[in-house]
Write a structure and sequence with these properties.
Layout (H helix, E strand, L loop, with lengths): L1 H17 L5 H8 L4 H15 L1 H4 L21 E2 L2 E9 L3 E8 L4 E8 L7 H15 L9 E7 L2 E7 L3 E3 H5 L6 H20 L2 E2 L8 E4 L4 E3 L6 E2 L33 H4 L6 H17 L9 H10 L5 H4 L5 H10 L11 H8 L4 H27 L27 E4 L5 E6 L2 E6 L5 E4 L9
Antiparallel strand pairs: 1-2, 2-3, 3-4, 4-6, 5-6, 7-9, 8-11, 9-10, 12-13, 13-14, 14-15
Helix pairs in contact: 1-3, 1-10, 7-9, 7-13, 9-12
Length: 448
């Protein structure tokens, strides 16, 4: 019934949208006669359509209004900061690289856009971003160093990051399970820190996730963040009969494609709304496309509210079943069926990292122990008794095929025994006779 209802709503919405503003009331009187809820849904969609630009907040410098004044110039002093170069611009303002003369370090300065300087709501959001981010101190959250104002333009001084946004990374193609899990776990750590302080981000998306050149993840832009106590609104149903409408009492805030169902309809949001948005991000990382799509904002909203996403593995081959289960659980439309916390989501992602950790730890540990123990074995157990060899004679001791490479090797202190690692385990080989003994990995161990 939800799907049929949505088809009716969307059809009438498009008919109303095609009419002029003056004609719409009469059209809705006839089309929704006797169904006040239906009319309310369509009117809500029409309001959302007019706010579509707010959903799709510009993130490129070429989206700035043509009337915007000249940007801040290189070499200009802003308090103790010297502007070096522009880093980017978007709907909320412009970001520059600058040098902090007091502490002799480079920073990023974010100015509110000149075209928004007289917009009280925008200035309030800008101030809120600074306050929300400064309240959080975590390695996976971009740090705020300072705030100020220059020539009527407020600014935030932030940690300077070198690398790329997750949006840029996804544009290069889907991520493998290990890289995806690594990024998602770090985002979970940032969100857990915020949630434990009662702060819900409400705008988790690839453009707000930064991956440094060293692979470290930083969550940005807490401009839409709210404390849970500030989000009083009708609470969404939390049972299997979850039947969303568009008649919530709060305005829809966020980026359309990443909204949770309860966020889209204006219900009370909590930590689970960030988990849904992160689920959308994970799906996009795995599949290379968004799970909920439509030709119009109304179509995207309808997909979020009523459609089950196509399995990521059906879109992009190679997505492990374990990862797919995690993503789809994060994308449950009923908040009660999602992960209850970012920490719980992170725990389910750990197995995607653990085999690699086990490989590195087991290989390094056994090779090191083998290299040290071989010398003792030669003396104490009289094993591998060998005669002297001429020095400086090169020999090839392994000939592994490309599909089973040697991943590490070490010589015993006396140079008589070599230990090396491949997919079958640890090999202890006598240099003179090439007699080899194998130490296999643990039964449940997997190199790949």
């Amino acid at each position: 019934m939800v799907g049929e209802r949505w088809c009716l709503i969307e059809g009438l919405f498009h008919e109303a949208l095609a009419k002029g503003a003056a004609e719409r009331p009469n059209f809705l009187d006839q089309a929704c006669s006797g169904d006040a809820a239906l009319r309310q849904e369509i009117e809500s969609l029409l309001a959302h359509e007019s706010l579509a630009s707010g959903f799709l907040e510009p993130e490129r410098s070429d989206t700035m209004p043509a009337s915007a004044p000249d940007p801040v110039n290189a070499g200009e002093r802003i308090g103790p900061y010297t502007i070096m170069e522009p880093l980017g611009a978007g709907g909320m303002g412009e970001v520059y690289k600058a040098h902090d003369q007091r502490l002799d370090r480079d920073v990023a300065i974010k100015f509110v856009g000149r075209w928004m300087a007289d917009d009280a709501a925008s200035l309030e959001r800008f101030d809120h971003e600074a306050r929300a981010a400064s309240a959080l101190n975590h390695p996976n959250i971009c740090g705020v160093h300072d705030v100020g104002e220059s020539q009527g333009r407020p600014y935030i001084v932030m940690e300077l990051l070198e690398g790329q946004s997750l949006k840029e990374r996804i544009a290069k193609g889907p991520l493998d399970a290990r890289e995806l899990a690594s990024i998602a776990c770090q985002v979970c750590a940032a969100l857990q820190e915020a949630h434990e302080k009662g702060i819900v981000h409400r705008d988790v998306k690839p453009a707000n996730i930064y991956v440094t050149s060293g692979g470290h993840v930083k969550v940005l832009d807490f401009g839409l963040a709210k404390r849970a106590v500030e989000l009083a609104a009708p609470e969404a149903p939390s049972n299997g009969g979850h039947n969303p409408t568009l008649s919530g009492t709060r305005p829809v805030i966020g980026t359309l494609a990443y909204l949770s169902p309860e966020q889209a309809v204006g219900w009370l949001v909590d930590a689970r709304t960030d988990i849904f948005s992160l689920g959308v991000v994970m799906y996009e990382m795995a599949a290379g496309r968004l799970p909920f799509r439509g030709k119009t904002p109304a179509g995207i909203l309808g997909s979020i509210l009523t459609e089950a996403p196509v399995s990521p593995s059906a879109v992009s081959s190679g997505v492990p079943a374990k990862l797919e289960r995690v993503i789809l659980k994060a994308l449950e439309k009923d908040p009660a069926r999602r992960y209850s916390s970012a920490a719980e989501l992170s725990a389910d992602l750990q197995p995607l990292l653990t085999p690699h950790k086990h490989r590195a730890l087991w290989t390094a540990a056994v090779v090191a122990v083998a290299a040290i123990a071989v010398g003792a074995a030669v003396n104490r157990l009289d094993w591998f008794r060998v005669g002297p060899r001429p020095e400086g004679v090169p020999r090839q001791l392994t000939a592994n095929p490309p599909e089973d490479p040697v991943m590490g090797a070490s010589l015993s202190p006396d140079g008589k025994v070599m230990a090396y690692v491949d997919f079958s385990g640890i090999h202890l080989r006598r240099i003179d006779t090439e007699e080899t003994r194998l130490i296999p990995p643990p039964e449940d161990f997997c190199f790949r």
